[in-house]
Amino acid sequence: MKRISLTQYLVEQQREHGHIPGQLRLLIEVVARACKRIAIAVNKGALGEVLGSAGSENVQGEVQKKLDIISNEVLIETNEWGGHLAAMASEEMDSIHVVPNRYPQGEYLLLFDPLDGSSNIDVNVSIGTIFSVLRKVGHTRGVSEEDFHQPGKHQAAAGYCVYGPQTMLVLTVGDGVAMFTLDRETGSWVLTQDGVQIPEDTKEFAINMSNMRHWAPPVKQYIDECLQGRDGPRGKDFNMRWVASMVADVHRILTRGGIFMYPWDQREPDKPGKLRLMYEANPMAFIVEQAGGMATNGRERILDIQPEKLHQRVSVVLGSKNEVKRVTDLHLAAGPAA
Length: 338
Ligand SMILES: O=P(O)(O)OC[C@H]1O[C@](O)(COP(=O)(O)O)[C@@H](O)[C@@H]1O
Ligand SMILES: [Mg+2]
Ligand SMILES: [Mg+2]
Description:
By secondary structure, this protein is α+β, with helices and mostly antiparallel strands. The chain is built from 7 helices and 17 strands. One magnesium ion binds next to strand 5.
């Protein structure tokens, strides 16, 4: 098999399509390098003393794990000096991190969920890193949080790394989705799948069923019809999977299809959902769309949502096109309140 490295892939994309500027290519390579360092820490587990809680809370009031903090630091440290970024934002930081004056300033903004699936860290189940890249628009000096408030359709690149039985990097620069597997012996990312396509139909759904009694009627109806299997209106049996690491659930969907949902629920009616728009939903929605799937908040395309806050939350329905469409149609038919 001819081995194509991440560098080679990006250079070829640049040559063929001309839409990956040098700074963006560098940025992606640096993020991939940071993910490699995080993978090494994840791999060491208890031997590296990286498991367990850090005893602090993030801006959303969630208890931080040691790996949440380590991964955040690795991403900042590897990215801030390269000259490709103006600023970064993270799930684990209250506000944006502007690249210090001692380093050259770049034109991109990087957002990340440094460690996704925190509840799975200590139980040796797949976790990951999610990232989104925006271009700093406008030519004003300096950078502010408002510069980040761009809808997901403006992302220049997005990706995630999954730390599972294999460490994989999944990437889109707006021209399809490519998957790379980390060769631990050589330390390089090797292209293992290009032109990833999500099947349009599926018999597999992913949702945290323990929240069922709190869901809105359209979500209840959709899942109820799936559960009725071949005796119900769908006329086929469904299977369920829920890893509780979005990266792992989305990775399965990219590989063999499926629908993923983390919907609004009535426990906290003012909160649109659990997942964060800018560094979880947007990058995943970009990847899913680039692989032929669909991603909505139940009503509108996630990539069209105009963000108002860095840590804004959103309801998420993504994956195989025909199923996401079905859930979205049920919401639209139910009217504005549901
Ligand atoms: O524990 P729950 O409610 O099933 O939530 C699981 C979801 O929460 C998350 O773990 C949130 O991500 P973080 O670990 O980055 O906070 C998602 O990855 C996952 O889909
Ligand atoms: Mg997350
Ligand atoms: Mg996280």
